[in-house]
Design goal:
The chain is of the alpha+beta class and 287 residues long. It has 8 helices and 16 strands. Strands 7, 8, 9, 10, 11, 12, 13, 14, 15 and 16 form a 10-stranded mixed β-sheet that branches. The protein has a 6-stranded antiparallel β-sheet with strand order 2-1-6-5-3-4. Strand 10 (185-189) and strand 11 (195-197) form a beta hairpin.
Length: 287
């Protein structure tokens, strides 16, 4: 079955999907995007993803491509046409097509595209044994809270991790604090048992999975802290894990080649993954 894309009002086979050479997303990364996981036919946290999409558009002064109601209809139709039960639904909006010029065009029509692909979830081995991460300098811009198309620093960090043979790169700021991963949020359970993740703000992207995990922890009566934590504190942690739309909650058992705690997934991480997956299955099916 051919993959179907949505491009500025048309559903097309992926091979025929095209955007204009002067689309500002292509020339300037002048746009924003979202990725919504489809898990067993269920769109996970669709409304929070759309809320963040609207926030990113507002912060960059890009007009919404359509109403939220229309956008949800487009996304559901794309899901239906692709017929995938487990997938990642990607959509992006750019400032549109205009002659190349750094300043905003006087007249611009927001361009919107959406695609789907099968999800590649962590393997059973990765879930059972955990994954390794490395640390690297955070060289991103000062507005990481906007889910913009400006991802080159993230790509460089992810490539470093790939070359090093590890799952992810954790980014370290000028104060030696870990902000987040190149495409994930970072969590630790400290040596004295405190669950910690970086506070939301301009230094990180406030992940939708991160937000859901926090709500689940609150419903379970688990205590946690949102604050900066140093690379040294992470190296001394009892447990560590990452969260993302594609990996959900995934244990980390090595940081920069050194074992985390006992070098195996800890009870807190296992519990959080269990309750996250259980909550995901409560979402209404769309196909």
């Amino acid at each position: 079955m051919s993959r179907i894309a949505y491009v500025n009002g048309r559903y097309l086979p992926l091979a025929q999907a095209q955007v204009h050479i002067e689309d500002r997303g292509y020339q300037f990364a002048d746009g924003v995007y979202e990725v919504v996981p489809l898990y067993r036919g269920r769109l996970l946290d669709e409304e929070p993803h759309l809320d963040r999409f609207d926030y990113s558009l507002r912060e960059l002064q890009i007009a919404p491509p359509m109403s939220r109601a229309a956008l949800k209809l487009v996304l559901r139709e794309l899901v239906r046409r692709n017929g995938l039960g487990d997938a990642l639904l990607y959509f992006q909006a750019t400032r549109g097509v205009a002659p190349r010029d750094h300043k905003f065009p006087a007249k611009a029509k927001t361009a919107f595209v959406a695609t789907m692909r099968r999800s590649r979830p962590p393997s059973a081995k990765q879930i059972e044994e955990g994954v390794a991460v490395m640390t690297t300098r955070d060289i991103r811009w000062a507005r990481c809270d906007i889910k913009s198309l400006n991802l080159l620093p993230n790509l460089l960090a992810k490539q470093q991790a790939t070359v090093a043979g590890v799952f992810e790169a954790w980014l370290v700021d000028d104060d030696d604090n870990i902000t987040e991963g190149s495409s994930t949020n970072a969590w630790i359970v400290t040596a004295d048992g405190r669950l910690v993740t970086h506070d939301a703000g301009a230094a990180i992207l406030n992940g939708i999975t991160r937000q859901r995990v926090i709500k689940l922890m609150e419903s379970e009566g688990l205590t946690f802290e949102q604050r900066s934590f140093s690379r040294d504190e992470a190296m001394r942690a009892r447990e560590a894990f990452l969260s993302s739309s594609s990996s959900f909650v995934l244990p980390i058992t090595r940081i920069d080649g050194k074992p985390v705690g006992e070098g195996k997934p800890g009870p807190m991480t296992r519990r959080l993954r269990e309750i996250y997956v259980a909550a995901a299955l409560e979402a209404p099916a769309v196909i």
